[in-house]
Design brief:
alpha+beta, Ribosomal Protein S5, domain 2, Alpha-Beta Plaits, 2 domains, six-stranded mixed beta sheet
């Protein structure tokens, strides 16, 4: 962690000729299982990963936020009293968080800083949620109010829904704000109850980046969400979380074919996610891997959010003898898969799966074994020891 802190502190020093007051970090995430269940009030089982968005900052008294993005080599700024939506790319996420916080009654102080991240954009690892949560953490530091992870997650989600225009659920922001090192976190997306679940001993998680990307705003994500809402209305419930598989099977004929398939995925995925958390608590990697495989089949067949590249990556991962299971992760249409494997075989797994996938598709993937980390944190500025 010290290297990343030093890196962003050095960038701040270069731009402002002094050390930052604070450095904040908010991680990306990978979801083991529970896909497209979050906006259906269901269950998800993500972990915060050791890739993050970092902001080094100092307070200002001019009522403005001025930020340099080291990743885009661009600068942007805005006045807190005159927030306007200008479709200014990455800066809109910061403005959206400021708008959401102000609208919720938070007094905001200005700040200036630099942003740097190593969460792959568009890969399904929630780089946007990490940026939103890091921005909220920066405002909390600069403005002097207490950090409340669940509340900040909700306001980050509202910024993405209402300002950016993506109807995401709560999972991404909540795990970025509330992750726990060494654990996945079972999240009840209705109550926002969090249940940390330890990883089985000797088991690792690999993130498998297909090197293909999707534009989430322009994808069919919003159409899937509308289908789920229509299905819930047909069943007379608040959300599909309130329908179990037995009832679905009895009453599925009230839905058209497409809506039926979408609903079947969500309802079965909720059951798989709860079963997966129980398997983790027992240290049962084989059962957990099997549930991940079932999840991918459902996402591909019923929810129809996989892709040729994702399917090829999943097949490559499952072909390795150390792999317990693999599935696409994130919204879909491109991005990443996730695999559960024997940690001792991590290097061989990464090498062989990458080579097999590249031979199948011509894409050069990124495969790395990740660690579960804490959620959003704030540190004092200045250098740290390596």
């Amino acid at each position: 962690m010290s290297l990343e802190r030093n890196d962003v502190a050095a960038i701040f020093q270069e731009h402002f000729r002094r050390a930052p007051r604070w450095i904040v970090r908010a991680p990306g995430r990978v979801n083991l299982i529970g896909e497209h269940t979050d906006y259906n009030d269901g269950f998800v089982l993500p972990l915060a990963i050791d890739r993050a968005i970092w902001i080094a900052l100092e307070p200002s008294d001019d009522g403005r936020v001025a930020v340099h993005s080291a990743d885009f080599n661009e600068a942007g700024e805005f006045a807190l009293e005159q927030l306007k939506h200008l479709k200014a790319g990455w800066l809109e996420y910061l403005k959206g968080v400021a708008w959401s916080l102000r609208d919720a009654g938070y007094a905001l102080a200005g700040w200036q800083g630099v942003v740097r991240g190593d969460v792959p954009r568009g890969a399904g690892l929630s780089s946007s949620a990490a940026l939103e949560v890091a921005t909220a953490r920066a405002f909390a530091a600069a403005s002097g109010w207490d950090w409340e992870p669940a509340k900040m997650a909700k306001l980050g989600q509202r910024a993405e829904n209402k300002w950016v225009g993506v109807n995401c659920g709560i999972m991404d922001q909540l795990i970025s704000a509330s992750g726990r090192a060494g654990h996945a976190v079972l999240i009840d997306c209705r109550s926002l109850d969090l249940s940390p679940v330890p990883f089985p001993e000797g088991i690792a998680v690999a993130i498998l980046d297909t090197a293909t990307r999707r534009g989430l705003v322009d994808s069919e994500y919003n159409e899937r969400r509308a289908c789920c809402e229509a299905a819930a209305k047909a069943f007379g419930v608040r959300a599909l979380r309130d329908v179990d598989l037995a009832r679905f099977q009895r009453e599925a004929d009230r839905l058209d074919e497409i809506t039926r398939r979408r609903a079947r995925h969500v309802i079965s995925e909720n059951e798989r996610t709860l079963a997966a958390a129980e398997a983790m608590r027992r240290g049962d990697a084989a059962t957990l891997g099997g549930l991940m495989n079932e999840s991918h089949r459902s996402l591909d067949g019923d929810y129809q959010v996989s892709s040729a590249a994702l399917n090829a990556m999943v097949e490559s991962a499952r072909a390795h003898p150390a792999c317990y299971g693999a599935r696409m992760t994130g919204a879909g249409f491109g991005g990443c898969a996730v695999a559960l494997l024997d940690a001792a075989a991590g290097d061989d797994f990464a090498r062989r799966v990458a080579a097999d996938y590249q031979a199948q598709t011509g894409h050069t993937p990124a495969v790395y074994v990740c660690q579960a980390t804490n959620g959003a944190e704030v540190f004092s500025g200045g250098p740290t020891a390596d």
